[in-house]
Amino acid sequence: MPRDLTQEIHNLIERGRDRQLRLAVTGLSRAGKTAFLTSLVNQLRHAGIDARLDLLKPAREGRLLGAQRMSQPDLGIPRFPYDEALASLAGEPPRWPEPTRGISELRLKLRFKTRRARGLLGDTANLTLDLIDYPGEWLLDLPLLAHDFLGWSEAQLAAMGPERQRFAEPWRRAVAAHRPDEVVDETRLAELAGRYADNLRQAREAGFSHLQPGRFLLPGELEGAPVLQFFPLPGIAEADRRQLEALPAESLYKTLARRFRHYQQHVVKPFYREHFRRFDRQIVLVDVLGALNAGPERFEDLASALATLMQSFDYGKRSLLNRLFAPRIDRLAIAATKADHVTPDQHANLVALLESLLAEPLKDLRYADVPVRAFSLAAIRATENRQVESDGQRQPALRGHGLDDAPLLLYPGDVPARLPDAGFWQRQGFTFTAFRPPPADGGALPHIRMDAALDWLLGDKLR
Amino acid sequence: MPRDLTQEIHNLIERGRDRQLRLAVTGLSRAGKTAFLTSLVNQLRHAGIDARLDLLKPAREGRLLGAQRMSQPDLGIPRFPYDEALASLAGEPPRWPEPTRGISELRLKLRFKTRRARGLLGDTANLTLDLIDYPGEWLLDLPLLAHDFLGWSEAQLAAMGPERQRFAEPWRRAVAAHRPDEVVDETRLAELAGRYADNLRQAREAGFSHLQPGRFLLPGELEGAPVLQFFPLPGIAEADRRQLEALPAESLYKTLARRFRHYQQHVVKPFYREHFRRFDRQIVLVDVLGALNAGPERFEDLASALATLMQSFDYGKRSLLNRLFAPRIDRLAIAATKADHVTPDQHANLVALLESLLAEPLKDLRYADVPVRAFSLAAIRATENRQVESDGQRQPALRGHGLDDAPLLLYPGDVPARLPDAGFWQRQGFTFTAFRPPPADGGALPHIRMDAALDWLLGDKLR
């Protein structure tokens, strides 16, 4: 009887502990968020049946019993379109799911056996897992909170490289016709703002990532609202601050500054306050291979965008974020996606390259004592490994189908293990070909190292 | 000196008074909101130049000097797309502007001379006019605040006529498979909700107007969110209330009731609290001619939709709205739009028919002492009046161009002066043809009685 009581108390404590986890998934557009989340839900739904999850310890130990979809807690947030994504993958021919354009979520209840001493299985327990998907572009707006309009304006204009300048030229010429003290009418202001947004859109089309303000590219219901119609003002500097602040409320400078503040207060902050602050764990997906494909200036740009994005996770005691929102993310994963698009011998290089790309932010994170781990993975594996003879030597190759459904057998090239130098770009470059997803068979989706990422992100919550 | 002082005090009082007006424009989709607002802005911009505004007293008296566009106060609300609408009207061939899909606003500053005794002109003064455009469908949700889920459910199912039932049939069959105490999984719930939304969409396509909940048809950023995924539950009645309320939180009944409450609190109420409450004046546009075209069941449906919509303006002391939000609308206009689509001899009938259509709500409004006036108007006049010989008699006719740009000369038929009876529908029916807008000449847009409506809505603020 006394032993049973101890056991019961132990069970009660177990049940009260670690029973909720909010796991957030982000990445810049085309990083593979939708495929990742679809596969994650799929693997957990197939756990204990046909999912291959050997690197997820509770699955390997046979303790993960399954996962059920539940009603999500936030009724006003779109549900992650899992069924639609599966339908798209099950098409003939199979297609990648439509990318999501804002925040969405999905709740799972995981059932597992707890672990006892000497490998014995304990009671059945549940983990409520909330999965949240949101655009990495929203995190690019964090630094905007640290500036006022004048500072932001200077910083934005200083950061434009030569190619970016080219996209900005038409806006630049138009805005040059106006002085900061001028009263610019509504129509003209909307036109100038339109040109600035066009410049951001063109830069994104051309493969640039580090674009601010993030909502200008995904406006949603704010389309056409003045809060998305501001822009940096060329030719103003910190030295002019006193004069600028003395301008009348209707002046161009004051109007833009007012909209900038509204953007900070009513667009950027609510995301951190209402969502980000509540995340427990986070995975950041990065399309490293895509950036290698796009050449040096865009690769640099991705590095700078990621450095900015990672600031949201670097909350040392004195950070802006910590002061404003007290976030609680206690574990972070970064992952190079689409690892199936290179041969397995290149995977180690892919992780090494991801770590070089994020070297500075990773230093800061380790200094701030945020546990972080890097992975390379394929959420939905689109290729098979083959060996081909070339010049009498056996070489690894990939087999799959292109986006046009034509069969492909190719060697996409070597991934550099560190940041590519000028020599790399001239010598070899890199061209990886996009594959379409594999035909669906109704079973668990094939993947590469999803189980390793899952083990890091939630394995410890399934003990 | 003393006379000057009196004058100065008088001027000060004048300036402090009536200097702001928030005028809201609404109507069910296709009622002509976008054309109305475009014309309204256009007429005021052209006041004192080439706009024909003889029925607007301050314009007739030469006191209205002009209107300038200003920055709108609500930075987070889309600006009404006036320039886009004008560009569309100025196309070759001219086209009606794209309809707006949510709330939008635009601010004008009107400059006018005040009126002194004996017709003398006084000082120059300004009126800040905020124009707000929003979907009439949002007002159809007001009654939803007076119900809980059980009451709403019963009322919705009771209100479906035979044709509406037909659209609802696939949803009805699907939902019949579930009991209120059942735990229905997320995927199935989303599927049932999708079928219910399909039924609303099909009914709207088929010309029905009285459809609830309104946001299911214009979801915006809530697309895919659980708050837009509920539906009435057949087979439950007030008599079962106690049993139903005792069901567990995960039951179908409790889940739907929770979403219904979220919809009330986070979708319906915020519109009334943040927007509606701040309107000073309101015009409701009604496409009476379109409803005559659509036949008896849809005409009835429009009448019932309008009766519901008008409840938002009937705030006697004890009304739900007054208790919740204390609105302040002090003057209301209702207008039958597209008056240019019938011959001028039918305009009196058009107003009479509009008043019959709204007979019950108008009684309530007059009882509640809300000043209201009915108009027939054409925001942008698309036709010219002609006389044609027919059987040796001169008959009025309309000349213009169809939506396919072909020239038209026709007599569209007689408008009944009262609610059409079965005889009318059998005997004659009604077919009005849609005209495209007139070619733009850069001047003020041609209209019918926009000036009369403006005089009622803001004439008294320009004294």
TrEMBL record, chains A, B:
It comes from the Bacteria. The lineage of its organism: Bacteria, Pseudomonadati, Pseudomonadota, Gammaproteobacteria, Oceanospirillales. This is YcjX family protein.
